[in-house]
């Protein structure tokens, strides 16, 4: 493998402050793994049926718990929260997709332009720690590797990695196989294979591996495909531990079935409903789950933002939305920001959450579910997918065990626990 020179660990191993939190430089190689869509149901099932023996062993040799993710429970929001150690109110990225209030344009987030703070990976690498990032989805890379020194690439474009851009080249030769299909379980398994190779060959001090939720969108806990995938994840965790790494595992969000008994998607098309009630062109509904991988979910999740396009009665619209079947919570801009630590200047006029068994969309014409190919719709975005696993391969020290037992842990605390909280 060809890589650029990686920085040495800083003399004195001085802690690094990032976004008001202090992180010790790693004493041993530390790997933070984000298993996209790893709902606690997969963890519970895998421990019960024996497909997750390594993670099960951490109940006695490490720590296994549950944390909250940031809202909305989407990929960009939570990966950004995790690598910055702070909620969206601070880092600014509150979804995968948004409406620009100044231009009226709808924009997909594919870079770090909306990021309002630095990252833990950048801070550690600038202080001298060897850092590496491998992500399944390339859309995340510019945020995860923002101002970071070290190897960084996506499985999606592994064949395109260059020394100039990614501090690595010939990735396919290193991993031993070609770049995977973006719509496959192999996209995530490629991330893990690359992570093991990097640990064997370069032994980074801090490494971040984050996957795709292709499997979880298609397969419920207990289905053979889900069991096989999560067993493969567990096997990689075992390899990394054997290589001497401290491994921390969490998820960006959970995952839930969003279909009716007959298998059809359980959808509320909120923009159609609101414009039908309050007049055509009254609102635009934005689905922050929308991303370049919409085949998974048809851009349907359990959280949306409503933007008024002309003067209207917001309270009346909110009251009407609450009457729709499957709607769990409706909050105005100020309240949704207060409750969920969201940036006030980047919210809609109000937010709507559907329950764990329902998705809420915009207009029927905006959502193509034809590519589900007979699978039940499984998705995320709302409160029902807020709980995620929070796992460490080493036991917590007394201070951090007390914090964990208090029950107010977030997935964005994972770096803090992995670097400051293990014995």
Description:
With 423 residues, the chain is α/β, with parallel strands linked by helices. The protein is built from 16 helices and 21 strands. The chain has helices spanning 40-49, 53-61, 75-84, 88-91, 120-126, 141-144, 163-166, 171-175, 186-201, 214-218, 224-242, 270-278, 314-322, 333-340, 398-406, 414-420; strands at 2-3, 16-18, 21-23, 30-34, 63-68, 97-99, 106-108, 131-135, 151-154, 168-169, 206-210, 246-250, 256-257, 267-269, 283-286, 303-308, 327-332, 350-354, 359-361, 378-379, 387-392. The strands form seven sheets. It has a seven-stranded mixed beta sheet, with helices on both faces. A four-stranded antiparallel beta sheet has the order 15-16-18-17. Helix 9 runs parallel beside helix 11. The two termini are 34 Å apart. Residues 1-12 have low confidence and may be disordered.
């Amino acid at each position: 493998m060809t890589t650029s020179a990686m920085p040495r660990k800083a003399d004195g191993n001085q802690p690094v402050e990032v976004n008001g939190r202090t992180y010790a430089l790693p004493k041993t190689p530390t790997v933070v793994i984000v298993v996209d869509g790893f709902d606690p149901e997969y963890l519970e099932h895998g421990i019960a049926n024996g497909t997750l023996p390594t993670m099960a062993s951490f109940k006695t040799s490490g720590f296994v718990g549950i944390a909250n993710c940031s809202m909305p429970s989407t990929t960009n929001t939570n990966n950004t929260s995790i690598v910055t150690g702070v909620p969206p109110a601070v880092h600014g990225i509150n979804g995968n997709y948004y409406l620009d209030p100044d231009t009226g344009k709808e924009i997909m987030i594919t870079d770090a332009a909306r990021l309002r703070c630095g990252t833990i990976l950048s801070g550690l690498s600038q202080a001298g720690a060897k850092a590496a990032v491998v992500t399944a989805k390339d859309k995340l890379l510019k945020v995860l590797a923002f101002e970071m020194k070290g190897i960084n690439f996506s499985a999606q474009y592994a064949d395109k990695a260059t020394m100039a851009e990614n501090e690595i080249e010939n990735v396919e030769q290193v991993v031993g196989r070609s770049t995977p299909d973006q719509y496959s379980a192999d996209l995530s398994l490629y991330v893990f294979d690359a992570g093991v190779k990097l640990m064997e060959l370069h032994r980074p001090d801090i490494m971040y591996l984050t996957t795709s939720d292709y499997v979880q969108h298609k397969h419920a806990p207990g289905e053979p495909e889900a069991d096989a995938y999560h067993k493969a994840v567990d096997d990689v965790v075992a390899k990394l531990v054997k290589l001497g790494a401290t491994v921390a595992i969490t998820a960006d969000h959970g995952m839930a079935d969003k279909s009716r008994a007959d298998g059809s998607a359980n959808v509320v098309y909120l923009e159609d409903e609101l414009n039908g009630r309050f007049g055509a062109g009254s609102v635009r509904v934005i689905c922050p789950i929308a991303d370049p991988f919409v085949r998974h979910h048809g851009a349907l999740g359990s959280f949306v933002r409503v933007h008024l396009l002309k003067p209207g009665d917001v309270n009346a619209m909110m009251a009407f939305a609450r009457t729709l079947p499957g709607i769990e919570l409706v909050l105005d801009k100020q309240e949704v920001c207060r409750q969920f630590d969201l940036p006030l200047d980047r919210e809609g006029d109000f937010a709507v959450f559907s329950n764990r068994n329902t998705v809420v969309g915009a207009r029927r014409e905006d959502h193509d579910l034809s590519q589900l190919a007979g699978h039940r719709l499984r998705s995320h975005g709302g409160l029902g997918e807020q709980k995620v696993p929070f796992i460490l391969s080493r036991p917590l020290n007394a201070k951090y065990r007390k914090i964990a037992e208090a029950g107010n842990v977030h997935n964005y605390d994972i770096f803090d626990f992995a670097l400051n909280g293990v014995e």
